[in-house]
Amino acid sequence: MENPLKGLGIAITRPIAQATKLNSLIRDNGGESISFPLIDIVPLEDYSVFDSTIQALNTYDWAIFISSNAVQNGMPRVLNQFTELPSQLEFAAIGPVTACELMQMSTPSTLISHVLIPKGRFDSESLLSLPEMQDMHGKQVMIFRGIGGREVLADTLKARGAEVTFAECYQRINPQIDCSRLEQLWRNKKLHAIVVTSSEAMRYLLEMTHNGSDDWLRNIQICVNHARIAEEAPSLGLKITVAGAPGDDAMLTCLQRTLFKSVV
Q1: Are strands 170-173 and 40-43 parallel, antiparallel or unpaired?
Q2: Which residues is 116 bridged to in the sheet?
Q3: Strand boundaries in 97-220, DSSP class E
């Protein structure tokens, strides 16, 4: 099927810097990519707590990075403090992109040659399912993340015997005031789907549409990349489709299948 998204507008709610590939895939398939970031990644105003926390990194067994943002905002400050990384410290990441960024950050004296990542889906639950994450009794774990976020990783590791410390190195904000722009595009038949790839972005979307009750949102396709993001959908009557696999290619397939069904 040539140009399967021809004439269809798709709003991407990711931070602008993280939406480049998906934007290109949508345009290459004839669609119109509409930038509407519901999350913006910004540095902390004060890094004193973070800097103090990572001083103890040489006593830890694991450093787990939640996202590329955690690597970009946290590792330069780690490398500024440590001319050599602690020899016993092992690294883990939520997915391969984050792991790749970690390894690219290393230098000959701070070499990161191996990063543990989950297989299949790239989330906390998949990381926790790995053999290395089972018996954590007496292990010291530092989780690099933004302010707030899900607690399932830390809570589960604690239940398995680990001592967990958060190293929070960035914050997420919603740069949008309301959804009037999206609503107007929908009413003008220029918006056909919204891509949401985080629970936090979904929460912002629902907050700005009266808990998802606005009529335009109930009549538009929403594609997400994880079932967790769609948990509230059945009770709110939203039309949500979950991509069958992680990654931008899977999201493109989700959009093609969902929108093709909705327009035929």
Answers
A1: antiparallel
A2: 92
A3: 115-116, 140-145, 163-168, 170-173, 193-196
3-state secondary structure of 116: strand
Look at the block and give the residue holding tokens 């906390």. Answer: 124
The whole-number average pLDDT for the span 36-52 is 95
Q: How far are the Cα atoms of 45, 49, 71, 82, 144 from residue 171, in angstroms, in the given order?
A: 9, 14, 13, 24, 12
Mean pLDDT of the chain: 92
CB-based contacts of 60, cutoff 8 Å, min separation 6: 86, 89, 140, 141, 142, 165
How sure is the predictor about 166, in pLDDT bands with cuts at 50, 70 and 90?
very high
Distance from C-alpha of 75 to C-alpha of 80, rounded to nearest angstrom: 8
Asked if residues 60 and 37 have their Cβ atoms less than 8 Å apart, the reply is: no
Residue 34 burial (C-beta neighbours within 10 Å; 0-12, 13-18, 19+): buried
Q: How far is the C-alpha of 14 from the C-alpha of 21, rounded, in Å?
A: 11
0.85 cut: is pTM over it?
no
| pLDDT of amino acid 264 | 42
Can you give the three-state secondary structure of 130-159, one letter per residue? CHHHCCCCCCEEEEEECCCCCCHHHHHHHH
Structure-token pair, residue 35: 């930038």
Distance (Å, rounded) from C-alpha 59 to C-alpha 21?
39
165 — pLDDT class (breaks 50, 70, 90)? very high
- Give the whole-angstrom CA distance, residue 10 versus residue 170: 28
